[in-house]
Amino acid sequence: MVNFNQYRIECKMNVKNYINRINYKGPLTPTFEVLKSLQEAHLLTIPFENLDIHYNNPINLEVSKLYEKVVENKRGGFCYELNGLFNVLLKQLGFNSKMISANVFNANKEEFGQVFDHMAIIVKIDQVEFIVDVGFGEFTFHPLRLEIGAVQIDPRGEFIIENFENENYKISKFKNGTKIPQYIFTNQKRELVDFTEMCLYHQTSENSHFTQKKLISMPIKKGRVTITDNVLKITENEEEVKNVVLGEAEYQEQLLNWFDIEESEI
Prior knowledge:
Layout: H1 5-10, H2 15-21, H3 32-45, E1 48-49, H4 51-54, H5 63-72, H6 79-92, E2 96-106, E3 111-112, E4 118-125, E5 128-132, E6 144-145, E7 151-154, E8 157-164, E9 168-175, E10 178-185, H7 196-204, E11 215-220, E12 223-228, E13 231-236, E14 239-245, H8 248-259
Helix pairs in contact: 5-6
């Protein structure tokens, strides 16, 4: 049995409550299998969402604030919140993990964003490094080996990591045989404070896609459920099975039904 008291002493969050929040029941030893299970459990229970931005609630990157929002208040968040908090959990469980900066690919402009545009995690296990990400919307369920040129099969598709310019790596996802860039990243260790400026940008700038519309999304076993403003979209096996416009009462109902969030409490 895990002694959670040892974690409480060392960190600003209750690890047992975090583990319960993601409905994880397995062992907590710092192995690849545990990492894989923790990542999937996290993705299936904590949504990617930007609702605070649309209710003018400033997003604070202090660990205690992230923990309060995601674990105690049972909310979701965007990359800085979800990966930032998950990295703290992994460290407390004994994983050798670090936060990294990534630049997201903009398909409309066909270019990558700025440094600190996205946060991801690198975990090192037995001298092998893995990319871990619980804050990037539709992405991998399981960690990706930081291995150049190998096609990696994940429950959410096929991915490949390649060298890119200026000592960056590029992650792409295959779709109908075509490589679709996801983001580029470096191996440099970052701290939460390093993301402050871009976190503020994504909350306030009219050029940030997060300020354009409300978004809340979470994978289900064979698909994804997303509410964008007042539109509910559900996909299964990459095929759209539902796309409906919601009235106010329906919106509140679906938000609670799928994501266990009551808008009145945001």
